[in-house]
Design goal:
By secondary structure, the protein is of the alpha+beta class. The protein has three domains: 199 residues, no CATH class; 98 residues, no CATH class; 111 residues, Immunoglobulin-like (Sandwich). Helices cover 43% and strands 18% of the residues. It is built from 18 helices and 14 strands. Strands 6, 7, 8, 10 and 12 form a five-stranded antiparallel beta sheet that branches. A four-stranded antiparallel beta sheet has the order 11-9-13-14, with no helix packed on it. Strands 1-2-3 form a three-stranded antiparallel beta sheet, with no helix packed on it. It is elongated, with a radius of gyration of 33 Å. The termini are far apart. Bound molecules: iron/sulfur cluster (SF4) (2 copies). One iron/sulfur cluster binds next to helix 14.
């Protein structure tokens, strides 16, 4: 650049992208994934699951008031947060695994931003037409037709945004009841404000910002490079086959030129508006739509498919040297991906194991330290304990409390004579327990005597125990 040249501006206005309709195996796969993921998201809060009379019957529910998470037959309590942490670790490892094997496949197929953007573009295409019609409309002046089409599109986008925000709040309370409250304007203000925020962000991100979120806002494209290597499959253009590109106007052109006829089909279908023929780019979400578009062109001009394809860097080097690319399974099954799979499976198995061995009764025992013991009028020594019992069942349960020890100790419960305490359904009860050693006994005169406190669910036949100590008067 000479000293008289004007430097390029730091900011340039967004060039709108008008992706063209395309069909092919990757587009079909994306439709299926979109249908399944949106179906799961919108319908899950409406699935019922009978847990008995005192528990919510919503299959998936984040019960903030009850401080629990329900997932079909599984109930996660706050002290079991390690299950959520484990699931997040699995999600992270799964993302590492897929990125290392298949590049930005998460971005291209399952990321909510991609899925909702696809949905918004689909509705836009229904209303305003395919790429050329949308470009014409964008350039046209604001007449009655343009306003009509734009307002129709925006209203449908708002409805999608509203359904998306609405579905989110249904995960946090009973969906049918909340739906009734919302339509009768008797819902909680937080529900309305959450729906409003999510409606606006869904429409802004999916309808207006679209690829800008992936290119400028999302940190994942910057991080994922650390998980990719020369064996990772990404979308690439076989330039050694396609170049020199050009229109095949005469029969001899086919011999002079490469297979790329410069039809721009791959660029016109790209949801982020890039030209994959310029090489791999940060903006590419590896959605495969340019592969579908180019395969269609290749078929029509009688050339082999795969001018644009999922390909690893090592294949590119091999193909340029005239060798055959390695089979896909060799790229997918390699030490790095196997390590991620092993770690993912280990965490998963650990969670399943923890789920099956977790006790039905939760019990904590806290000795009262102030004072550590009291001497009663008959000379016996008494210790006090706060026993916290959690009943995870949907009905009130009687719990019998007892102790086992190598020495003589007596147990009493505050407020009951028969060592049985009733714990209400799905609640935690604090029961004060007194343990007494007779005057002059071994435990009364020893410094610390270990013993085991037992809790038995008299209806469920479950038992749990906690080891603690009895403090004597050892002067
Ligand atoms: S679709 Fe294929 S032939 Fe057409 S411009 Fe793209 S790479 Fe070239
Ligand atoms: S270049 Fe191809 S794979 Fe990459 S985002 Fe565009 S259409 Fe998808």
């Amino acid at each position: 650049m000479s000293s008289t040249d004007t430097p390029p501006p730091l900011y340039s206005a967004r060039e709108p992208v008008f992706p063209r309709r395309v069909s092919g195996k990757f587009r079909t796969l994306k439709w299926w994934i979109m249908g399944v993921t949106l179906g799961i998201y919108y319908l899950t809060p409406w699935i019922r699951w009978d847990r008995g009379p005192n528990l919510p019957d919503q299959a998936v529910l984040v019960d903030l008031a009850g401080r629990r998470f329900f997932f079909f037959w599984i109930e996660i309590w706050p002290h079991e947060f390690y299950f959520i942490a484990g699931l997040l670790i699995m999600a992270g490892l799964g993302l590492f695994l897929f990125t290392s094997a298949l590049g930005r496949v998460w971005c291209g197929y399952t990321c909510p931003q991609t899925v909702w953007t696809d949905l918004f573009i689909l509705t836009e295409r229904w209303i305003e037409g395919d790429r050329n019609a949308r470009v014409r409309l964008w350039k046209a002046r604001w007449d009655f037709r343009k306003w009509r089409l734009r307002i129709t599109k925006w209203v449908i986008w708002l409805v999608i945004g509203l359904a998306t925000g609405g579905a989110w709040v249904f995960y946090f309370t009973d969906a049918p009841q909340l739906a009734r409250d919302l339509v009768t304007f008797s819902g909680h203000p937080i529900a309305y404000s959450t729906i409003a925020v999510l409606t606006i962000t869904t429409v802004l991100f999916g309808g207006f910002a679209r690829e800008q979120v992936c290119i400028y806002m999302c940190p994942w494209p910057r991080i994922q490079a650390a998980m990719m290597d020369e064996d990772t499959l990404t979308v690439a253009y076989r330039s050694w086959r396609g170049e020199p590109r050009g229109k095949h106007r005469k029969a001899e052109d086919a011999e002079k030129l490469g297979d790329c006829i410069d039809c721009m089909a791959c660029v016109n279908v790209c949801p982020v508006g890039i030209d994959i023929r310029e090489g791999q780019q940060l903006a590419c979400i590896t959605c495969g739509l340019c592969i579908d578009a180019c395969d269609d062109v290749m078929e029509r001009i009688g050339k082999p498919r795969g001018l644009i394809d999922y390909m690893a860097l090592t294949d590119e080097t091999a193909e340029r040297a005239g060798s055959k690319p390695r089979p896909i399974w060799e790229h997918v099954l390699r030490p790095r991906t196997m390590l991620y799979t092993a770690l993912w499976s280990l965490v998963g198995l650990g969670l399943v194991f923890a789920l099956f061995i977790r006790p039905e009764i939760d019990l904590t025992v806290a000795p009262v330290r102030n004072p550590t013991f009291v001497t009663l009028s008959d000379g016996s020594i008494r210790n006090t304990y706060d026993v916290r019992l959690r009943n995870k069942n949907g009905e009130e349960r009687p719990f019998h409390i007892s102790l086992t020890s190598d020495t003589l100790l007596r147990i009493d419960l505050e407020g009951t004579d028969n060592l049985v305490t009733l714990v209400p359904a799905d609640e935690t009860l604090l029961q004060r327990v007194y343990v007494t050693a007779p005057a002059g006994s071994e435990a009364a005169t020893a410094d610390r005597t270990p013993f085991r406190l037992w809790v038995e669910d008299l209806e469920g036949n479950e038992r749990a125990h906690n080891d603690t100590v009895f403090n004597g008067n050892a002067q």
